[in-house]
Each structure stands twice: as structure tokens, then as C-alpha cells.
Amino acid sequence: MFLQLRRECNRHAPDSCFIRAMMSRPTFTCLILMAMVVTYVQSHWSMMEGMWRAQIDLLPVFAAFAALHGGLGPIIGLALIAGSWLDVLSANPLGTSLVSLFLTALILHRLHEVLLKGQLAAQFFVCLAAGAFGPTISCLFLWGMSMQPLAGWGTLWQIVVNAMICGVAGPFIFLILNQMDRLVSYEPVAQPWNRSVVEVKRSKRY
Q1: Which of these, 189, 165, 129, 172, lies nearest to 53 by C-alpha position?
Q2: If we measure between CA atoms, which residue out of 5, 1, 2, 3 comes closest to residue 190?
Q3: Does residue 191 carry a pLDDT above 90?
Q4: What are phi and psi of 128, to 5 degrees?
Q5: Arithmetic mean of pLDDT over the chain
Q6: Which of 18, 66, 171, 192 could potentially form a cystine with 9 if both were Cys, beta carbons 3.0 to 4.6 Å apart?
Q7: DSSP state of 23
Q8: Distance CA 176, CA 34 (A)
Q9: Hey, CA dihedral for 13, 16, 19, 24, is it positive or negative?
């Protein structure tokens, strides 16, 4: 899909190329702001945690969006800013959420060429996988740092619940971010032909 998009851009608008295929700066800013607001709300809203007996984290959904719609730049930026923001608001050791967000987004980014990011079912399963990857990578990171996190059957339940909620909320968050992207970004106007390869037909007089 990526190579086909590149060929189409080179055929119709080689000068503008496929910059629009990557995430623009205004879209990245909206992504960061929305992720920080959602992180703040979920850290101060204990109703969901008491209802499901699990701590809900929707940041993997934003990592999935950055992985499917951007390159390494948005992935690293989201992991640094949103991950550090989550660690500050929670009891996590500083850097735990950063590593989990970065690795989750990196795994999905490696597979973004074979994922149908415009389909609701694909968005559900991608966000489901991201919601499971996030806490799993966090636990493995803490174990690797010899911090001995409290893990057991409750941890497995929390991973399953967080994955399901991320899968359900993912398409709605993707819809909001895509609408923001259309509002703050612009579509480059493609030229009807490439002027550099126009063949001029001359008559017999010339």
C-alpha cells in the first residue's frame, strides 16, 4: 500500500510528493493534547477502576494511531511526552510508560503496511492488541529492572479488561483524531500531469 501510494504521488504530483501521507505538525499537536487530557482524566476518575476492578489506560490507543498514521518522529514524541506525563500522574517509576508506549507503537508501525487502518474491525483489533501490549511490556520492563512488580491472576485480568476497553474505545478515538486531522491539515493539489515529462509533438514544418 505504501509503495503504491508513493507511485501515485510520483505520477500525479512529484513536487509535493507524499508528505501528506505522514502526520502533520498540527495533527501531532492535537494528538499530544488529547492524549494528555485523556491521561489526566483517567488518572483522576476512579469510577471505571472500581467498576471493572482494573486500572484503565487508553494511551496505547494513541500509540496505535501514531504508529499507523505517522513515522518514528510522532512515535518518539508521543512516548516521551505522554509517557512521562502518565508516569508523573501515577505511581509508575519514571520511564516505564515511555518504554511501553514506544515499543507498542514500534511493533504496530512495523506492520502498518499490511493493516487496513480505515476499517472499524481492523481498528478494533489493532487497539485491542495495543491495549494488551502496553501493560505486558510495562510488567516485563519492571521485571527486567529487578523492581519486582506485584503480578498474578489480577494482572492477567487487568490486561484483558484494558485490552477490551481499548479495542472498543479505539475506533471512536480514531474518528475524533481523523476529524481533527481534516480540520487542521490541508490536502496538496495534485497537478493534472507532470510538466517535466510532457512530450511536445512537432509538425513537419519544424
Answers
A1: 165
A2: 5
A3: no
A4: -60, -45
A5: 77
A6: 18
A7: P
A8: 10
A9: negative
Listed in sequence order, the residues at least 6 apart from 181 whose beta carbon sits closer than 8 Å to its beta carbon are 23, 24, 27, 30, 69
Q: Write out the H or E segment, with its range, that includes residue 134.
A: helix 120-144
In the block, which residue shows the cell 491539515? Answer: 185
**Site of grid cell 527486567:** 144
DSSP-derived letter for residue 94 is T
Q: Taking the chain, what is the end-to-end CA distance rounded to the nearest angstrom? A: 45
Confidence of residue 32 (pLDDT cuts 50, 70, 90): very high
DSSP classification of residue 95? T
pLDDT of residue 4 exceeding 80: no
Cell 501515577 locates to 90
In the DSSP assignment, the letter for residue 199 is P
